[in-house]
């Protein structure tokens, strides 16, 4: 083991940013495939979104076990295998001829993103950063998770508008291949020395965490994060197409969300170093609900959609540095990947409802009215609960809470 220094930490942080940017960026652009794939393959919107729901179920179920493997035997093998799973997933997406092949591709994406997405990338980041600067650095790396969406969305939509949708799949295969070397470099964090910590059994660790009120509230409100984000990612392109808007508008909106989210994550990391993270998370959920309410109350136009995307971008993935930093505050970094995986199980339950439920409401009623009203209502509840019952990220004395697991 070697001590963490700026020289050996910087390549790890850059590679983690690239890996997570590609993993999250491709996933967040999958909704752009909905109109062309459902038309070309005779799939319904609920067929498409059910496969997206399967992806989120697989991601949620795989995250905690894969996090535990990474905590015990090293992050590098998990992340490299995950990037290879992503390559296989995109190859399967490109070869899709029906619902079952598409579902296989989404299942592989679920495994791949569990290994290369926010949980393990943020764990690597937290271990490479000093505790004094951890929240800020988590915000910086989290900000780069949106660069992928910013760059991929418009280019993908241009391909889909001009060529067969399978060329979009080919683009994703190439991007997934670029994740492999990034995962290998990020895995160098395994060589850095970490503070001595107690390695509890997975069952004992989870049991101890679930007896922590703040962690339970964090997991519960994380459900709403998954529901709101995946609903927008998956259904905004179809909603805009249904309202007669140019298909490029949805790609522009996703790109703007990704671009503005860079500032949102940086701000979240900065504020998380100075203010109670549970308050910031609660305000994020309340803010998202307010933006959704205003946008869906009126027919969409290019101007209102761009304003919606800009406002939502500030509130998009800022939860990543806040949730990751909160878990590190409460429990330390020794078992961080496992505990982030536990919170993601709940997060992905919300993602399933946001993706599949939105598609079912659309197929039943021909619109998204009920779906967005439900999303707004539970977002308000989650924000209030997180603020009132999430508890401070630090004790009144200013000292970090005693870690529950090392």
Description:
- There is one protein chain.
- This protein is an all-alpha fold and 406 residues long.
- It is 79% helix and 0% strand.
- It has 17 helices and no strands.
- It has helices at 6-28, 34-41, 45-73, 75-94, 99-116, 118-128, 134-144, 147-162, 166-186, 202-210, 213-242, 247-272, 277-296, 302-314, 319-331, 336-365, 369-389.
- The longest helix is centred in the middle third of the chain and has 30 residues, at 213-242.
- The protein is globular, with a radius of gyration of 20 Å.
Write the layout of secondary structure elements.
Blueprint: H1 6-28, H2 34-41, H3 45-73, H4 75-94, H5 99-116, H6 118-128, H7 134-144, H8 147-162, H9 166-186, H10 202-210, H11 213-242, H12 247-272, H13 277-296, H14 302-314, H15 319-331, H16 336-365, H17 369-389
Q: Brief description of this entry?
A:
The protein has 406 residues and is mostly helical.
Number of strands: 0
Helix content: over 70%
- Into how many domains do the coordinates divide? 1
- Poorly predicted parts: 393-406
Mean pLDDT across the residues is 84
What gyration radius follows from the Cα positions, in whole Å?
20 Å
Question: Total number of helical segments?
Answer: 17
Estimate the strand proportion: under 5%
- Quick one: CATH superfamily? MFS general substrate transporter like domains
- Alpha-carbon distance between the two ends: 19 Å
The CATH class designation is Mainly Alpha
Biggest sheet: strands, sense, closure?
none
Q: SSE string, helix = H, strand = E?
A: HHHHHHHHHHHHHHHHH
What's the shape?
Answer: globular
The secondary-structure class comes to mainly alpha
CATH topology: Growth Hormone, Chain: A
CATH architecture: Up-down Bundle
